[in-house]
Amino acid sequence: MKIITLKEEVFDSFVKQHKYGNPYQTSNYAKVMTKEGYNYHYLGFLNNSNDLIGATMLIYKPIFWGYKYAYAPYGFLIDYTNSDLVEELTIKLRKLLFKQKFIYIKMNPLIHCTERMMNGNMVSYNPEINDILEILQKNDYIHHGFNRFFETKKPRFTAITKLIEPNEKLYYKLSKNVRNKINKAISCGVEIHQGTMEDLSTLYEFIKRKQRKSIEFYRSILENFDGNAEIYLAHINPTKYIKKSQELYEKEYNKNEELNQILQNNSRKGKNLTKIINKKMESDKVLGLYHENLTIASKLFQEYPEGVTIGGCMVIKYNQGVYLVIEGLDKNYRNYNGNYLLKWELIKKFNNAGYNFFDLNGISGEFNEKHKYSGLNEMKLGYNASAIEYIGEFDLIINKTIYNMYQKKNKKK
After folding, report:
1. What is d(CA 118, CA 382) in angstroms, rounded to the nearest whole number?
2. Is residue 152 within a helix (H) or strand (E), and if so which, with residue range?
3. 3-class secondary-structure state, position 281
4. Which of 79, 39, 31 is closest to 55 using CA atoms?
5. Series of mean pLDDT values for 10-residue runs along the chain (413 residues)
6. CB atoms within 10 A of CB 35
7. Rounded to whole angstroms, what are the CA distances from 175 to 14, 179, 340, 366?
8. pTM, entire model
9. Are 271 and 229 in contact (CB under 8 A)?
10. Considering only Cβ atoms within 10 Å of each terminal Cβ, which end of the chain, N or C, has fewer?
């Protein structure tokens, strides 16, 4: 085996056809990460016939006495079931990177362990997972365990909605809670619009505290993914909000008047009368709610006649999939459920455009006990999404002496 430096176009072409290919193992993402102080290498792995049998993009930067740390986003693009390949590659990679003053490599391969339903029940299991784990650990890759939350660099569990049927059918497979939230957002006049680079500053206000990255990082994503990175914003249209609120109020008002007439006619007795009274009381509550919404909508129109943007997200389109990079919401407008409608509108759009899946990004791996991420799981998995469990994160130590010194220094901080 030989390790060579690949040209950018050769590397990107290989990634695109590999089963573990993803937008974070591309030259586009490598250039984005220069905004975070990283440099990068495109490495190719050749067999004895000079065929390209693997590749990886390594991003790296100095961290200790001029020694460097490297990260292979979502792992090397190789056949992890091939024990000989993994062993030979690891030996040669260590030798090469030792000379270049690397301390260790971190990676988190896109190797599926399981696919699960919303309640955590297993749909499928990768029978090769134990063999792969054994091969990696035999070659000194240190596994960070099967963590259930967000303790590692990237989430070990993600929610993925498969786009394999028409939107009409997909809608009825959404959870009842998600459908209710979507309908409420629509009744509140929420609309979804695609943004431009000029809207990045608006989006950034919703996301800047989530990952502590500069606006230039997200600007670089839009620039380097060259039309395949997109911004979407959730916006309240107050005119639409008033109109919808008025329609709902009038419809309920007419229903309430009909119930009132029945009661005044006193034509019902016993259980029938009790049933009508209960319906009237429930209608009174709904009518009061719609009246309140109409008042809020009118007030919103007075304050923001052109409307107000309440949230947004950024996605990357790659190959047959769409990846949710980040999303954010103005907490003052949380009850408008703009984030629910936002994801649904994107699912519909990309389903119609022929994409195969929508990756909704990280969730937790705890499906039974209540915890602070339970709402996140309920929301994302409510889009008829599967919970995909990956193998997890590994470290490969290149220079053990310097690595131990680096770890000791960090413990003292």
Report:
1. 8
2. none
3. helix
4. 79
5. 98 98 98 96 97 98 96 98 98 97 98 96 97 98 96 95 97 97 96 98 96 94 96 97 94 92 73 84 92 94 96 98 98 96 98 98 95 96 98 98 91 69
6. 16
7. 38, 6, 12, 19
8. 0.93
9. no
10. C
